[in-house]
TrEMBL record:
The keyword Cell membrane applies. The lineage of its organism: Bacteria, Bacillati, Bacillota, Bacilli, Lactobacillales. This is ABC transporter permease. The keyword Ribosomal protein does not apply. The chain crosses the membrane at residues 58-87, 99-120, 126-145, 178-198, 230-249. One of its GO terms (cellular component) is plasma membrane.
């Protein structure tokens, strides 16, 4: 009994440590003071309106949305066939390939960002937009392989084998049998990869160029010269967008199956 009470207290403290900062951000986004303060002395929605009047935020949002969608679609085009090969074929070094493709999710983001900066910007000298697209494609690919691979392993392979025995080629069975059966996994992987790309700070920070900033770097630049609750309001809007996407993932596939 004492052990259960101790675990309950630890769980409450962990949840408080995680959620109290978020609660402070939500409360301060409605404050009337010109600086972020807690507790607030009045209630206003002006900071939310100010988000839409700040050009750097609008431009950063559009660029983050464009890069996030394009990088995730590109990761889907390449990640789905890779997941199929890794789940259906016995190839030499299969576990090493899986570890390699999942490595960007294990290595700290600041290290990934610095390596991509050295390779894409310094060594190859690619344009900023192309560099951001490649960088976000590389950090999106592991999520596609992880989630789609999980869906393929849960799918009954006898369904696909039945299609082969009835005259389907491997390509036709893949498009008409496999893809429809893992469509929820593909959709969930798209949402998960997009959320991680949209909210990514290290890669966006290292690969951004003069006048070309994604939303996370625009927020950091704004905070260098301003400390008003506009950033709190924008953070609340991003949190709501992320929550909506995670709810959609939960409804389509279930978070437990991709953890």
């Amino acid at each position: 009994m004492r052990k259960q009470k101790g675990m309950t207290i630890i769980a409450i403290l962990v949840f408080a440590f995680l959620f109290l900062p978020l609660l402070l951000i939500i409360v301060t986004s409605f404050g009337t003071e010109s600086a972020i303060k807690f507790p607030i002395k009045g209630f206003t929605l002006d900071w939310y309106a100010n988000v839409f009047q700040t050009e750097s935020f609008i431009a950063g949002f559009k660029l983050s949305l464009t890069i996030g969608v394009l990088a995730t679609l590109l990761a889907l085009l390449i990640g789905v066939p890779i997941s199929y090969v890794l789940s259906r074929y016995h190839i030499t070094g299969k576990s090493q390939f899986k570890s390699f493709f999942l490595s960007p999710t294990i290595i700290p983001g600041i290290v990934v960002g610095y390596v991509l900066f050295q390779w894409i910007v310094i060594a190859l000298g690619l344009p900023v937009f192309m560099g951001l697209l490649i960088g976000h494609f590389l950090i999106s690919l592991p999520y596609i392989i992880r989630v789609v691979g999980s869906s393929l392993e849960q799918m009954d392979i006898s369904v696909e084998e039945a299609a082969w025995t009835l005259g389907c080629t491997r390509q036709k069975a893949f498009t008409k049998i496999v893809l429809p059966n893992i469509s929820s996994g593909i959709f969930a992987s798209f949402m998960l990869a997009f959320v991680n790309s949209f909210n990514n700070v290290p890669v966006s920070m290292f690969l951004s160029g003069p006048g070309v900033n994604m939303l996370p770097t625009s927020i950091l630049s704004f905070m260098e010269y301003n400390y008003d609750p506009t950033v709190s309001a924008l953070s609340v809007m991003i949190m709501l967008l992320t929550v909506v996407m995670m709810v959609i993932i939960e409804k389509t596939l279930g978070l437990a199956s991709i953890s």
